[in-house]
C-alpha cells in the first residue's frame, strides 16, 4: 500500500497528479482545503490537499521516501526500526495467513497509524502564526512584553485577520503631538542623546524656514563646551541667547525674551539614576513655567532602561517625547517601546547630525511601517 499526500490549487489538478503518479487504481483517503504554511501563506488562496492510496509491494521504499521528502527529524535508527517491524509483520502474515482480506485491512490500519504519526510530526514541525509573528516582531526589537500582549489580543481572531489586527493595535499606540510648538519649550534627557543638536535643528527650522522669532536659553553650565555649543548655533542663526547659572536667573532670562514667538531651553544631560541631579533639574524646569517639556531619547536606548528613564523623568513633568538618532539603527521597534513605556505623545524624530535638516515630523503610517520593518531611514 502506498499512501501519499498531494497539494494542488484545485481538486482536478490534484487528481491529475495522483493519476499520473499512482495510476488509475489509486483511491482517495482524505481531502481538505488549507492555506500554505508561513506568514505569507496567511494571505494566499486556499489549496487542496488530497491523500491517496494504491496497493503496492514496495511499502518500505515509499515510507522511506515519504519520510525523507517531509524532511522530518526522524533519526535513521527510528526509520529503520519502523520499516523492519513493518516488513517482518508483513512477512509473518504472508506465511501464516491465508485470508488476504484480513491481512490487507490490518496492514492498511497499520499504514494509517504510520501516516498519522508522520502527520503529527509534520504538524509539530510547521511553525504556527504565533511563532512566526513572535520571531518577526522580536527581530524588529519590539519588547517581549509588548509582543506577548499583542499576540494575546489577537488570539481568538481569524488567522487571516491576525496580522492586520496587530498592525492596527500598534498604530493605536502611536500617539502624535499635533501641536508640538509652544511659547516656552524645555528639552531634558540622558547625556548625549542629542538635546542640544535637536534644539539647534528646531531653532533653524523655526527661525530660518518659518521666519519665527526664536530665543535660546541654556542651563547646561555643567559640561565644558556646552554653552559654546549652543551659543555657536545662536550666533550663526543670529538669534538671542542666554545662559542661566542659577534658579534666580531663569525668570529674568525668560523675561528678556518675552517678545520671542518661541523660547527653547537646553538642559544638562542627567542620568536617571542620579536623583539629586534630577531634583535640581526639576527646580529649573518648574521655574521656567513651561507646559511643553520634551524628554529626548535615543532610538538605541535599551528596552530595560526605557522604563527607568521614563519613570524618573516623569517627575519633571515630561509631557512629550522626541526620539533621536533613527539614522543609526536598522530596526525601529524602540519607537513603539518608548511610546508605550513613557506614555506621552511623540513631538518629532531626528534622523542625522545635519542642522537643521535632520528633523522629521512623520505620520502614524510612516512610523508604523518603520516599526513593522517595512521601511527604513537611510
Ligand atoms: N546620527 C545622529 N547623531 C545625532 C543625532 N542627534 C544628535 N546627534 C549627535 O549626537 C552627539 C551628541 O549630541 P548633543 O546634541 O551634544 O547631545 P546632548 O543630549 O545635548 O548631550 P549632553 O548635553 O552632553 O547631555 C553629537 O555628536 C550629535 O551630532 C541624530 O539624529 N543622528
Ligand atoms: Mg547638550
Automatic annotation (TrEMBL):
A single Gene Ontology biological process assigned to it is: SRP-dependent cotranslational protein targeting to membrane
List, alphabetically, the CDD domains matched.
Answer: FlhF (cd17873)
Gene3D superfamilies the record matches: Flagellar FlhF biosynthesis protein, N domain, P-loop containing nucleotide triphosphate hydrolases
Source species, domain of life: Bacteria
* Localization per record: Cell membrane
* NCBIfam families found in the cross-reference section: FlhF
Q: What is this protein called?
A: Flagellar biosynthesis protein FlhF
- Give the gene that encodes this protein: flhF
